[in-house]
Amino acid sequence: MRKLARVPALLGLALALVACPGRQDRFPHAVMTPQAPVTLPAAALVGDGGKPFKLSDLAGKWVWLYFGYTNCPDVCPLAMDFMADEYKRLKAPKAIRVVFVSVDPQRDDPQRVMAFARFHNPDFLGVSGPDAVLATLTHALNASYTLDTPTKPGGNYGVSHTNLIFLLDPQGRQVATYVPGANPGDMAADMNALTAQGAP
Amino acid sequence: MTATRLVLALALTLSAAAPAAAKWQPKPKPSRMTEVPVSVTDAWIREAPPGAAAMAAYMLVVNPTKKGLSLTGVTSPAFEEVQMHVSEVKEGMAHMRQVPGFTLGPGQKLVFKPGGNHLMLLHPKKPLKKGDVVPLVLQFDKAGVRSLQVKVLAQGITSDTLQHP
Q1: For residue B20, is pLDDT > 60?
Q2: Which of A44, A110, A118, A149 is the most exposed place for a label (fewest CB within 10 A)?
Q3: What is the pLDDT of residues A150-164, one digit of tens each?
Q4: pLDDT higher for A157 or B1?
Q5: Shortest CB distance from B53 goes to which of A71, A78, A80?
Q6: Which is more confident, A5 or B165?
Q7: Which residue from A77, A112, A156 is facing B155, i.e. has the nearest CB?
Q8: What pTM did the predictor assign?
Q9: Inter-chain touch A161–B93, beta carbons under 8 Å
Q10: B48/A77 touch (CB, cutoff 8 Å), yes or no
């Protein structure tokens, strides 16, 4: 009797495994997937025209999130170009938003950040926020940034920053991480597979 | 002595004196503007959003001479400052490091490409857009300079897709 009772349970487990494949299976081209989806803090960012912006404003959409700064002439445009190229390959681009977060709010006002993001694709969003908010958000994603010391007082400075693309699910949780510049089409392929399945 | 003979005599005297004079006269230093025969190909500037404070230039520099050269500075009348930078991505972190210059051994090449070495062009004096051409001067220490005209190209172009702008 006890053995028979196990059958539906095992069947249920098997069905659950089929219905909910492992995270790595859902994001086969991700460089990393967290053990469990990472819930992000309610970071009070600043968006278009200086209006308040929260990542939760994008609930219901997938998000590709990237941290950088607009005075970055090399690595950040390269990552943005990469995301723009992947974005063009999406079969359901309306299911995703691409968000560039500046970690250099001293120099990057909301207009500058938005212009930088939209320059790469008019659908992209550019946001920033106070240092304390950025620190909390990056920490939650295991990301970081540091302002470098200028070579002369008041001179130009660089910002060292995490160069990864974080995928947030429609609940706003981080579920995978991608590397900018990886094999073209791979990141879009993961997204296309998810949207084709009607995920989440 | 006729005037013709006088001129001839003077010319002979001068020609005889010339090699001797060369012995004690200091060898003239190469002018700062001496063009060095360095090959520069695939040079381009990445188009940036309007109002951008920093842009990047890329190129392939080859030293075909039998002497080593040092790239010690870059200037452009179109920008307030040009710096030489190296981008590095280590364990997911991007770092940008300013360097004082690069050395180019005989026959060596120096690659400036996205995500690696690049020239950081700071504060354009007027907004630049795709198709604009910008003069750049590479200073090779005391050996001289290499002047070039570099075109601003659209975003999304990488050194892999770049042919000859």
Answers
A1: no
A2: A149
A3: 878 888 899 999 999
A4: A157
A5: A71
A6: A5
A7: A77
A8: 0.82
A9: yes
A10: yes
| DSSP 8-state assignment for residue A150 | P
The upper half-sphere exposure of residue A42, i.e. CA atoms within 13 Å in the direction of its Cβ, equals 2
Contact: A74, B95; criterion CB under 8 Å: no
Distance (Å) from the alpha carbon of A143 to chain B's nearest alpha carbon: 9
In chain A, which residue's Cα lies nearest the Cα of B156?
A81
Q: How far is B87 from chain A (nearest CA, A)?
A: 7
Concatenate the DSSP letters of all residues of chain B into one string.
--HHHHHHHHHHHHHHHHHHHHHHSPPPPPPTTPBP--EEEEEEEE---TT-SEEEEEEEEE--SSS-EEE-EEE-TTEEEEEEEEEEEETTEEEEEEES-EEE-TT-EEEE-TTSEEEEEEEESS---TT-EEEEEEEETTTEEEEEEEEEE-TT--TTT----
The shortest C-alpha distance from B79 to chain A (Å) reads 14
Q: Which residue among B96, B115, B158 sits closest to A158, beta carbon to beta carbon?
A: B96
Q: What is the pLDDT of residues A99-125, one digit of tens each?
A: 999 999 999 999 999 999 999 999 999
State whether B93 and A70 contact (CB < 8 Å): no
